Amino acid sequence: xxxRPVAKLAAAKQExxxxxxxxxxxxxxxxRSVPDDVKESFNQTFANxxxxxxxxxxxxxxxxxxxxxxxxxxxxMRILARRQQAPHVSSEEILQMRDDIRVESDSPHGIAAx
Length: 114
Fold this sequence. Notes:
The chain is mainly α. 65% of the residues lie in helices and 7% in strands. The chain has two domains: 1-31, no CATH class; 33-105, no CATH class.
């Protein structure tokens, strides 16, 4: 009978390749091509720190940034779709509406129209 953690490791190895198990946790290793100058800079900058923790933090930040960008892109597309359905209003009409609103909001305060 295969224990649950061992089955989990076997499934991870099949899906990802280089995986190992520490305790009941499965760790999958993905090799990424990183230019040598970036590796050297990273190693010098973070020489006395846990590189796995730093890489994990950077990956989490990248995921969060990608999600924010996707949300922003979706919002932009919704705005664009609304603009395409909105009625056309000329600049003159907009300026006139602005002036009308200003007169309405100023008159209760005793401010004369321009």
